[in-house]
# Entry
Amino acid sequence: MSGAERDFSAFVAARATSLLRVAYLACGDETEAEDLLQTALERTYRSWDRVRYDNPEPYVRRVIVNAAISRARRRAILSIIPTHRPPERPARVTDVDLRHVLMEALRALPPRQRAVVVLRYWEDLSEAETAEALGCSVGTVKSQASKAMAKLRSALGREAAEGVIRNARA
# Structure
């Protein structure tokens, strides 16, 4: 095993859980989160010689978020294409646990707003770091966060949205 492979393996061993959490929060589904993380790690491995000398975690986060947004767009397009029979939709499970309610509210957000909320409030990135991870301006991060929080407040109620986001890491 070469030095680069050892470095990559050590990075994955140290950060996989945190990156899987980002992927789950970006897409809202465990299986898809694992696929997103696998895709991100594969892309990172291919660029490891370039990425490893900087901090590789923001790069992997950005790959995860971009892949989640691309998949959401693809699903949106596929849902528009007519099918011979309506697609089966899973029944909504009513759950009193606030985290499940929050996950439903997060899933209802557009992918970019969901990415901003995940990176800003779960990963505790600054506005500048979030902007860098998403490849956009700080102003875009601010406006997307504002819009996302307004939607979460209306879906959950002001105190519930802010309380759950503060306590989600607990």
About this structure: The CA atoms of residues 29 and 90 lie 13 Å apart.
